[in-house]
Amino acid sequence: IEMAKRRVAWVLLVPAGVTFGCGVWQLNRMQWKNDLIDLRVRTLNKPVISATSQDMLRGGDSADSNLEYRRLKVTGVFDHTNEMCVGPRSRPGKCESQAPGGTAPSGYTLVTPLNLKDGGTILINRGWVPTKLKDKSLRPETLPLGTVTVDAVVRPVDQPGLFVPQNSPPTTWFSIIPSEMATAAHIPNPSSIICADIVADSNEFDVNHLPVPKPISEYSQFRTMPSMHITYAGTWFALSACSVIISVLAARR
Question: What is the residue-averaged pLDDT of the chain?
């Protein structure tokens, strides 16, 4: 009987070890995310790169770490004929009015080639518009003409998840893949093309401005912030402790 009790106790220690390991993993995730946020903030605080030609920029689908999350001020003319709508995607930011079923209104992210003033092209994510305005002929006010200067942040290449469909150029886009988009827009040297998000110097999404730009504060935000990893770790450690207690009690019965 005593031997059986000990075996049961040892078996109960297995989940204790597993849950303890999960707690340690969450702490490691917290540290990794803190380091990532720190790196992004330091990169965003580097001097703004002012560019009027592609020669002044570097990048491509290799996601040059020296350019990712760098702030740009670029001057050129938008090529609205090659505008690409990526989505559908939910409206960013807090949503006061909900669509049927309690979900945020659906829409599309607009990616438009910007022909730089002194040569070359980059892709610009201009922001979000609702589905009803996907057709650009219905929103002429969102199509600036002539030379423009925009503030933007170089974005990393999207890494589509397992259940995200593949892009179907030139009309259907689910992910922002600069080389594929540049090819569809007939931009020379597509593998060297980067994409940058137009940003607003604010902490909130301005949903009254179309397309809705991304606030600069969003680049240091994650769906799961570091503080949540502490909560998760605490939960796992608590479960581990409970397993140990149950194991001890089982051995003493």
Answer: 87
pLDDT tens-digit series, residues 128-157: 999 999 999 999 999 999 999 999 999 999
Q: 169: helix, coil or strand?
A: coil
Place of tokens 């204790």: 16
What's the pLDDT at 200?
Answer: 84
E strands along the chain, which residues?
49-51, 71-78, 84-90, 106-116, 121-130, 147-154, 195-200, 214-215
Q: Which of 168, 175, 198, 178 is nearest to 76 (CA)?
A: 198
pLDDT greater than 60 at residue 104? yes
Amino acid identity for residue 86 in this structure: V
pTM of the predicted model, to two decimals? 0.81
The token duo for 143 is: 């199509």
φ, ψ of residue 169 in degrees (nearest 5): -60, 150
Residues of the chain above pLDDT 90, percent: 62
Instruction: Pull the structure tokens for residue 39.
Output: 């790196």
| Cα(56)–Cα(39) distance, integer angstroms | 23
Tokens at residue 216, please?
């600069």
